[in-house]
Amino acid sequence: MKPPVDTGADLAGRGGALAQGAGGFSVRAMSGDDLDLVMAIEERAYPYPWSRGNFADSLAAGYDAWIFADERGWIGYAVLMWVIDEAHLLNLCVPVELQRRGLGRQLLDWLMADAAARGASSLMLEVRPSNLPAVALYRGSGFATIGVRKAYYPAGALREDALVMARSLGNG
Ligand SMILES: CC(C)(COP(=O)(O)OP(=O)(O)OC[C@H]1O[C@@H](n2cnc3c(N)ncnc32)[C@H](O)[C@@H]1OP(=O)(O)O)[C@@H](O)C(=O)NCCC(=O)NCCS
Question: Average pLDDT of 33-57?
Answer without folding.
Answer: 98
